[in-house]
Structure prediction request, 271 residues.
Amino acid sequence: MDYATAFAEIVVNENLRHLDFADIPNSVRVVIIENLSKFSQLKSLTLRNYAQAAGQWLYKDTLQSMLKGLCGLTSLCLFSLKNGCTNEILTNVCLHGRWTLEVIDIEGSKQISDACIPYLLMCVKVTELNLFRTGLTDEGKGILISKLPKLCHLPRGDFLCDALAWIEDEEDGPECIFSIREFFPSQKYYFHEDWQMEMVASCCPYISKMFFIYHEQCVPDYLVLLPFANITDLDLYGGHYYNDKICDLLQIRGEGISKLRLISVKGIGYK
Prediction:
């Protein structure tokens, strides 16, 4: 018996609740994947960058073992596979974990497309979705934001403005209110205009964490952030502390902020 098989026999236990593939040798990973169906009580499965780093389940037999194993994970609360997740893998995860899944992290998985949307919508308990740099369209992301009832965390969700704009174009009637808690600058255009920030503040009044990049041609000053009354964690990039009214913003909202980072801000320490 080789060491990989011997190790896997120790690890494979139907009572195991959490499995993280970080720092596990490739040969052992393959054996565990082949026995995935035996982890019937698993609550969290973190596969890291396995597909990208090792390429092991690109082999047909290993992929099929994984897909078969996912069918038995009906108690899964957290699933994470960055860079290497596919529509087929995600569909299996959602189908069999739809009543229990709360966190899904598929960051960097460009093979993920809108074909997965109906399956993600089955996961009615999901509170956190990491969709950063996936192949989902703004329409797909907008559907998820508007239809998943408990969704409140979009880690690195730089697409929020574009998804909300799609929702506004599609929805009739009163403006929708969502429970999203974070705002990040777009990776496509970095600087947001005042109408975008007004839309976000109106649709997502519970945002508590924000990273905002300032540009004088897009917004008049930092008071554009004043409507965000629930901010506790704030990163501000660029501008002048006094001239662009960071000082005024903090005088009004500063009491509720527990984490503040000022990056490349001019004029701090003098007026």
